[in-house]
Design a protein that fits this description.
- It is a single chain.
- The protein is globular, with a radius of gyration of 16 Å.
- It is an alpha/beta fold and about 220 residues long.
- It has one domain: Rossmann fold (3-Layer(aba) Sandwich), CATH 3.40.50.150.
- The protein starts with 5 loop residues before the first helix and ends with a strand.
- The protein has a 7-stranded mixed sheet.
- It is built from 7 helices and 7 strands.
- Helix content is about 35%, strand content about 25%.
Amino acid sequence: MKMLSHAEARAVYDRFGARQDRQSFYEDEAFADLLAQLALNEAQAVCEFGCGTGRLAKTLLDEYLPATARYVGVDSSTTMVALAKERLAPLGARAKIIQTDGAPQLDLPADSFDRFISTYVLDLLSEADIQAILAEAQRILSPGALLGVASLTHGNTLVSRLVEKIWVGVHTVRPTLVGGCRPISLLAYLSGPAWHIRHRRHIISAGISSEVVVAERL
């Protein structure tokens, strides 16, 4: 399966812009489940890999995190970074947005966060990059801290398997039409000794399957 390069992915999301928020019809149930499992009322430092337009970050900061908590979002898209900065500007120093070159390495200190969140981003990355960003998450999280991830995953009903087949077919022919994303299994990347799985759920919205996983950094 052809994967988009970092430059190609950045270009796709620069063009996509605010339209990314239209994906809420299948993302919102996964978001709600993820946020309910992350004990965010106890968090003080949150990193989001692939912050997009800042939609999830705004919800985090307005409704879930303590007023003393800080948030750092990273994204490679110039358009997304601009949209997120604009959306989070009223929150002042509580929120910081950093633009990266798309590589999975993060210029953030080790053991400096207690939550790491990434939604519908790992399914865009190559297997090597998924493994690399999860290693970075382990590095910047303190022991006992929580990782929360959501992604497209494989269907487990007749309708969701049909939707998956169509999605994969489109990805095979022209991956940019589906944002470069494809169904993956998160557990396949989190089954090692670095993580303890605390929560996993398979969610189907509008026929599209999502996997939500919360894991403790050991």
